[in-house]
Amino acid sequence: MDDRSRILLSACLGALVGGVAGYLFLTEEGQRVRERLEPGMDNVLRELRGLRSAADKARQAVGEGFKTVEDLRRGVREASPGWAGRPPQMY
What we know:
Elements: H1 3-26, H2 28-79
């Protein structure tokens, strides 16, 4: 996308956002729309916070899992220095 296209797209998006904001905040009908949307938006925000919390917990669990695997690998290397990652010799 060249610079002209980006500038035109940005101007159109800015005009659209400005028009919607003006409608919602400067008209009586917009105020009624906002009053109907606010409870739903509160629910959406609450769900997003819960999702973020779940993602943080999952990220923490993955980090702990990687740490455990690394600790196990380190313990195997230290416990069998003669093996050094090679399979034992068959008889």
